[in-house]
Amino acid sequence: MPLSAGRLRHRVTIRRPVQTKTGDGGFETVWTDVATVYAEVLGLNSRESMIGQALQGVSSYRVTVRFGTDITDADQLRYGVLDLNVRSISDPDGRREQLLILADTASAQATG
Description:
The protein is mostly beta strands. It has strands spanning 10-21, 27-51, 54-66, 76-79, 82-90, 98-104.
């Protein structure tokens, strides 16, 4: 199905982890904004998971963006106040028109 501009009505910011030096000689991960793009964001499901010895709610999302968007599975998407961890990226029909991103709110990656 062709990707029409009308479907891309949400704005998401692509965030990438960058290692920076701390004053004590160590490193910390800082999330840096890479780009803000139009996307279609659809909620898929919610569940509860044990994360860090605590039961937390996790929501999954399907995000569609134009093909060629610079994104990796190590990135996050900021959608409103949500930080979505990218889990997979695919070109669903092989036509190089769109990227289908599966992401969730699980706190498996550090947020900042």
